Amino acid sequence: MKLTFRTVAILIALSFFALALTLMFTPNLLLADWGLENTLSVGVICRRAAALFAGIAVMFFLARNAEPSAARSALINGLVVSCFLLAALGGLELALGHVTPRILVAVFIEVVFTLALLHVGRAADPVTQMHLDR
């Protein structure tokens, strides 16, 4: 199966929408899994993060059929940075003992999305393709 931007965009949209719903309505599912307690402050942050994840889900769903372009590259590069930083921060929080090893599930998904986005972004880059065809 060839990995395409369309496939990756749909998977991201579904995953981020599910994450948004979880953070908005049942944040304890993630927080307890990571060994964190749901305080008023944490709840506020979870709901605000949910709005951001929902927005990213909508952007990727609506862009799923986009042809290679500067806008599509911006979406890819922006989410590569976000997913990479989320994965790195998850690993750091685990190393510092702030969360349980269950955060590694999220870190794994973030790394997979980072690699998938880099792959589909590179495959659509005409300069990269020119070098690969040699």
Describe the secondary-structure layout.
Blueprint: H1 5-25, H2 28-33, H3 40-62, H4 70-95, H5 103-123, H6 126-132
Helix pairs in contact: 1-3, 4-5
* Sheet having the most strands: none
Radius of gyration: 16 Å
Coarse structural class: mainly alpha
| Weakly predicted, low-confidence segments | 128-134
Short description:
The chain is mainly alpha-helical.
Structural features:
134 residues, mainly alpha, 78% helix, disordered C terminus
Question: Your description of this structure?
Answer:
By secondary structure, the chain is mainly α. It has one domain (5-132). Helix content is 78%, strand content 0%. The chain has six helices and no strands. It has helices at 5-25, 28-33, 40-62, 70-95, 103-123, 126-132. The longest helix has 26 residues, at 70-95. The two termini are 24 Å apart. Residues 128-134 have low confidence and may be disordered.
